[in-house]
């Protein structure tokens, strides 16, 4: 019998070495490499079930066309969750959900499992961190204690698969969490890179062979990345991030990876005493409590996937006594703010070099699209001049380094959402020359940043 060779795996990124090192060359982490005897490579399966390379098993090949016995998707009963997943769960798919501790992952999955179980589907909730009594207490608090969800507190993957294989395969199986699972084919402690990879591989194989939707809950590191090897994110079909801030009562779910749907959709939930409540109109939530007569605030008409979202951008420009003025931003890209400030200095005629600049996206939403440049610039100009912007106006447009305001996609959808919420005018880029669109009443098109500066200065006079 061949002697097993020890290997050394980084517990942060999953890189494997044949000897111990103090620093991981892949991620740069110190003292993260741990010896794992009998560790398997990322492409290896269990030793007892691995086929011989000399003689492989012959399997049948199928064509793209054919009849499916089941519907391609299974609605979860929660509209915002279905929006993020692309219309519901795909049979046999594996979804990895990550989020900070206490953000509401278990609460959301408890509500989703109860909704599916009430529809007549078999649903299993396997917890590796809580006892069955603790899961029942959470379900009773949410008013879901009578839902026919099958519960268990187990961490052995082989036992979980054997139990779920009895009788009718479950439509949904929730594993909370993958870091607590362990498989007998790997000789290492639970939570290590090899155990997480081996456990995930076994659960993915079960999902593909039975058609069960498996949801894996993953812990996150201090920088927001899902703990464990990155290869698990490549193995699963979808990676969903559940975000939120302790200072705000809403949570945002967004897909980082999705093989069966878009990755730019978001789902918005509000945390209440009855669990997570769906927010069908996030714009009203983000604009609640807005001060209409304060300088330095502008309403941005943004897009999150196919959903238009209106959010308030706040700016504060104050004289600085420091040699290097402060530049602080929350909810937006720091480098994007630096670019907008440089354009305002070079082409807008503003002097911001001796001022502290603070920019905040109200409500805790994080914006990533360049269309927010015009709204941020309007808020900065308003704060510097002390002139409040019209409360019934929205702003959107991309700002170029030359000071030109460039058109952005889906302008009609942005304007339609603004009109629905009572906004009567918009400041937006000028339409393209050969594809001019008819602007709605109250929409002012601008081609250069000087037009925006002049318009706000005229209001002050």
UniProtKB/TrEMBL annotation:
PROSITE patterns: RECA_2. It comes from the Bacteria. Coiled coil: none annotated. Pfam families: AAA_25, ChlI, Zn_ribbon_LapB. A motif (RadA KNRFG motif) lies at residues 257-261. SUPFAM superfamilies: P-loop containing nucleoside triphosphate hydrolases, Ribosomal protein S5 domain 2-like. Keywords: ATP-binding, DNA damage, DNA repair, DNA-binding, Hydrolase, Metal-binding, Nucleotide-binding, Stress response, Zinc, Zinc-finger. One of its GO terms (molecular function) is ATP binding. One of its GO terms (cellular component) is cytosol. Gene3D superfamilies: 3.30.230.10, P-loop containing nucleotide triphosphate hydrolases (3.40.50.300). Residues 356-461 are annotated as: Lon-protease-like. ATP binds at residues 99-106. The keyword Zinc applies. InterPro entries: AAA+_ATPase, DNA_repair_RadA, P-loop_NTPase, RecA_ATP-bd, Ribosomal_Su5_D2-typ_SF, Ribsml_uS5_D2-typ_fold_subgr, Rubredoxin_2. GO terms for biological process: recombinational repair. Residues 70-220 form the RecA family profile domain. Belongs to the RecA family. RadA subfamily. Plays a role in repairing double-strand DNA breaks, probably involving stabilizing or processing branched DNA or blocked replication forks. The middle region has homology to RecA with ATPase motifs including the RadA KNRFG motif, while the C-terminus is homologous to Lon protease. This is DNA repair protein RadA. It comes from Microvirga brassicacearum. The gene is radA.
């Amino acid at each position: 019998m061949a002697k097993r060779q020890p290997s050394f795996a980084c517990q942060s990124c999953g890189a494997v070495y044949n000897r111990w090192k103090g620093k991981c060359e892949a991620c740069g982490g110190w003292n993260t490499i741990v010896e794992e005897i009998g560790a398997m490579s990322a492409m290896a399966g269990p030793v007892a079930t691995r086929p011989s390379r000399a003689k492989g098993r012959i399997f049948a090949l199928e064509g793209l066309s054919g009849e499916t016995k089941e519907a391609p998707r299974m609605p979860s009963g929660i509209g915002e969750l279905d929006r993020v997943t692309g219309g519901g769960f795909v049979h046999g798919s594996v979804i990895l959900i990550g989020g900070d501790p206490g953000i509401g992952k278990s609460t959301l999955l408890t509500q989703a499992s109860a909704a599916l179980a009430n529809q007549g589907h078999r649903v299993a909730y396997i917890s590796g961190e809580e006892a069955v009594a603790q899961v029942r207490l959470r379900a009773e608090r949410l008013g879901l204690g009578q839902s026919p969800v099958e519960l268990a507190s187990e961490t052995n993957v082989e036992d979980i698969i054997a139990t779920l294989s009895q009788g009718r395969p479950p439509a949904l199986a929730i594993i909370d969490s993958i870091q607590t699972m362990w498989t007998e084919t790997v000789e290492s402690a639970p939570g290590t890179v090899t155990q997480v990879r081996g456990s995930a591989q076994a659960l993915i194989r079960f999902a593909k062979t039975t058609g069960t939707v498996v949801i894996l809950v993953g812990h996150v590191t201090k920088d927001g990345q899902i703990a464990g090897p990155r290869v698990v994110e490549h193995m699963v079909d979808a990676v969903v991030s559940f975000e939120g801030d302790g200072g705000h009562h809403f949570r945002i779910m967004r897909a980082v990876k999705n093989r069966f749907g878009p990755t730019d959709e978001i789902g918005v939930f509000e945390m209440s005493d009855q669990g997570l409540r769906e927010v069908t109109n996030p714009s009203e939530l983000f604009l609640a409590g807005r001060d209409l007569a304060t300088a330095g605030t502008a309403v941005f008409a943004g897009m999150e996937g196919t959903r238009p979202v209106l959010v308030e951008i706040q700016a504060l420009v104050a004289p600085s006594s420091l040699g290097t003025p402060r530049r602080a931003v929350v909810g937006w890209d720091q480098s994007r703010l630096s670019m907008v400030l440089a354009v305002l200095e070079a082409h807008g005629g503003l002097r911001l070099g001796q001022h502290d600049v603070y920019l905040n996206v109200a409500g805790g939403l994080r914006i990533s699209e360049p269309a927010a440049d015009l709204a941020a610039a309007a808020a900065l100009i308003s704060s510097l001049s002390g002139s409040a912007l019209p409360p019934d106006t929205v702003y959107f447009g991309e700002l170029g380094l030359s000071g030109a305001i460039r058109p952005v996609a889906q302008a009609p959808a942005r304007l339609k959402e603004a009109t629905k919420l009572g906004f009567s005018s918009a400041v937006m880029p000028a339409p393209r020359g050969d594809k001019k669109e008819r602007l709605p009443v109250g929409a002012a098109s601008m081609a250069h940043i000087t037009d925006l500066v002049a318009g706000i200065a005229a209001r002050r006079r």
